[in-house]
Description:
Elements: H1 4-15, H2 19-26, H3 30-37, H4 46-53, H5 57-61, H6 76-80, E1 83-88, E2 102-104, H7 107-123, E3 137-138, E4 143-148, E5 163-169, H8 171-174, E6 179-183, E7 198-203, E8 212-217, E9 223-230, E10 233-237, E11 247-250, H9 251-256, E12 259-269
Parallel strand pairs: 4-6
Antiparallel strand pairs: 1-2, 3-4, 4-5, 6-7, 7-12, 8-9, 8-12, 9-10, 10-11
Amino acid sequence: MKTSAEKLKMLRELKGLSQADCAKALGLDRTTYVKYENGGSVRRNVEKLARFFRVSTDYLLGNTDNPVRSYAEMDQDEMNEPVQEVVTLRDKYGRLRKDKSVPVYSEDTLDKSIACAKKLIEEDPLPAPAHPSLHKSTTEHGVRIPVLGRVVAGIPIEAIEEVIDWEEIPQRLAASGKFFALRVCGQSMEPRILEGDVVIVRQQEDVDSGDIAIVMVNGDEATVKRVKKQEDGITLIATNTSVYEPHFYSNQEIRDLPVRILGKVVELRGKL
């Protein structure tokens, strides 16, 4: 189990902040914050630190390796904040955004967003997509793409026959590239992405730093992780660090293992 100091340093680095940045954001003296990362007791400001880094107080105190905050620890403002870790192609008013990413909002707003999006598609239909190999058929409202149970090395995505379901995406989105869907296995991206959820993926070999991507390491099955780019390599980051701690791969390892990005997650579709 990591110490409180190690956890604070890891959380700060994941945010890309300096110790001075954190101290300023928390309203603390820099020397006070530095003491925390050097092993000093965090009890006096543990609630403030936990809220800032979006982890539980027990996680910072070393009582657990599960960083997920309980509802009891969240205030009303925090619970009402929009989810920004996973993106969709609809804004909170239901307007479609061509090839842009905007935050997912609350469940109630998202339901209204979906209804508005369907209405817009009905009023403004677009031509069929240019990639029939993945986009098997087009309905009145959108394009069907395959949901895969897994993506393994050595088999092109277009050739995978293990299709477990189908999802529909807007024609605007389908026209912008090749897409597939992947059913999430494991708990590494909880609580935002749960096992059994489906992610919509644009097939591409590179993503921007901070994007959530489908990544394959050393020929194993592809996984869903946030990608942080650095000059000397990349770090794959899970939301649930008790299951999967952030893992850095050097540029040499990226070439030798290899580490391959298969696509960018553009939308999350939660399943009951």
